[in-house]
């Protein structure tokens, strides 16, 4: 029979064990937070890649080479004499079937070396029979891409122009004079009575203001929505174990906050389709999701991207414009076990992610 003294010892031993465990968990949490890499910056990119442009905001500097160091990677980029990444259209290649890819940093291939971009993979697979040209510009949105297509890309008369629309922020950026993630001003279009009107041109030489730097996709989507906090969501330990904070369903606010940007996007695509048709080419729109759509579809960003994806696919179908659903492809690969398609902190596609895109385009482009 245990005496009261023994029970007291057991009780205090339990208290000491719980305190020790709590202190240990707190210490691990602290260390993990200190060691956590920042995912808010773009790393260290050698200067000179971007050149001011009065109509586009910026373009890529011609014949540039430089390194880019990030927590997730260490790579080098180079541009050709026309200010693009990768292959050029040489005089003896005029008869080759030409594919032009227009998009932002995902198309450019931020985070991978020159030979690992999906366009260069496609060029190697084509063995000289087709030419895949990379016109990706980091930070571009659909408005800049429309202007760039008219001024530069359609001059090479591509048989197929593939516009790669990034679901993460392209449609939001189309509505603003400054992108969410770039410290440079840009042109944009306003849609009034079904007509596109170009604004903010000539583009001013200005950086983002402090107020605009604090603007985020979450601010736009959740303004006025009562917060619903997940008390476990801030734990670094749980995050490392794969726990994802629970996000509330925001489907009821998406139509009001997203539909105007979808209307503008569809109008920009329709105008681009008209221009491409005049050169006897074909426009194909490829919808590329960000990491959250693939790995955490219930997140705010995942819900936002899925809403855009479904609505844009439906509306482009009614306009007889071909659209490719890269979101379903990447999510199916992820669900099948390919977990490293995106860099975890930077968010861009890894070399494996580019191989998935190359394989998809190889089998789905005309």
Topology:
Layout: H1 4-35, E1 44-45, E2 50-53, E3 57-60, E4 65-69, E5 74-78, E6 97-102, H2 105-108, H3 118-126, E7 130-134, H4 142-151, E8 160-166, H5 170-173, E9 188-192, E10 195-199, H6 210-213, H7 217-222, H8 236-240, H9 254-278, E11 282-288, H10 291-295, H11 300-318, E12 322-325, H12 326-335, H13 351-364
Helix pairs in contact: 3-13, 4-9, 9-11, 12-13
Question: What is the beta-strand fraction?
Answer: 15-25%
**How many structurally independent domains?**
2
Main β sheet profile: 5 strands, parallel
CATH architecture of the largest domain: 3-Layer(aba) Sandwich
Helical stretch tally: 13
Radius of gyration of CA atoms, rounded to a whole number: 24 Å
Q: Return the CATH topology of the largest domain.
A: Rossmann fold
Identify low-pLDDT runs: 28-35
By CATH reckoning, the class of the largest domain would read Alpha Beta
How many individual β-strands?
12
Order of helices and strands: HEEEEEEHHEHEHEEHHHHEHHEHH
The helix content is 40-55%
State the end-to-end distance. 85 Å
Q: Could you give me the name of the CATH homologous superfamily of the largest domain? A: SGNH hydrolase
**Structural class by secondary-structure content:** alpha/beta
Shape category: globular
Average pLDDT rating: 86
């Amino acid at each position: 029979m245990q005496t009261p003294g023994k029970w007291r010892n057991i009780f205090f031993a339990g208290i000491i064990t719980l305190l020790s465990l709590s202190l240990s968990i707190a210490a691990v949490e602290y260390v993990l937070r200190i060691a956590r890499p920042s995912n808010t910056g773009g790393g260290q990119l050698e200067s000179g890649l971007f050149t001011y442009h009065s109509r586009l905001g910026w373009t890529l500097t011609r014949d540039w080479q430089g390194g880019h160091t990030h927590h997730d990677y260490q790579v080098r980029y180079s541009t050709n004499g026309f200010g693009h990444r990768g292959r050029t259209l040489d005089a003896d290649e005029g008869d080759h079937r030409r594919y032009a890819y227009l998009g932002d940093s995902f198309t450019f291939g931020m985070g991978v070396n020159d030979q690992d971009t999906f366009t260069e993979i496609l060029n190697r697979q084509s063995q000289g029979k087709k030419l895949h040209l990379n016109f990706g510009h980091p930070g571009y949105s659909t408005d800049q891409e429309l202007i760039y297509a008219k001024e530069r890309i359609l001059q090479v008369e591509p048989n197929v122009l593939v516009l790669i629309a990034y679901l993460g922020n392209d449609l939001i950026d189309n509505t603003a004079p400054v992108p969410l993630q770039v410290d440079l001003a840009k042109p944009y279009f306003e849609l009034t009575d079904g007509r596109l009107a170009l604004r903010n041109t000539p583009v001013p030489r200005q950086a983002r203001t402090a107020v605009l730097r604090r603007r985020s996709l979450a601010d736009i989507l959740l303004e006025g929505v009562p917060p619903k906090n997940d008390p476990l969501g801030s734990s670094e330990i749980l995050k490392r174990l794969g726990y994802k904070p629970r996000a509330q369903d925001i489907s009821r606010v998406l139509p009001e906050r997203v539909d105007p940007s979808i209307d503008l996007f569809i109008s920009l695509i329709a105008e681009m389709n008209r221009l491409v048709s005049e050169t006897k080419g074909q426009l194909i729109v490829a919808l590329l999701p960000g990491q959250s759509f693939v790995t955490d579809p219930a997140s705010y960003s995942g819900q936002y991207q899925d809403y855009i994806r479904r609505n844009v696919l439906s509306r482009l179908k009614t306009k007889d414009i071909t659209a490719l659903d890269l979101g379903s492809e990447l999510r199916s690969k992820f669900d099948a076990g390919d977990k490293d398609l995106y860099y975890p902190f930077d968010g861009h596609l890894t070399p494996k992610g580019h191989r998935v895109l190359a394989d998809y385009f190889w089998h789905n482009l005309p």
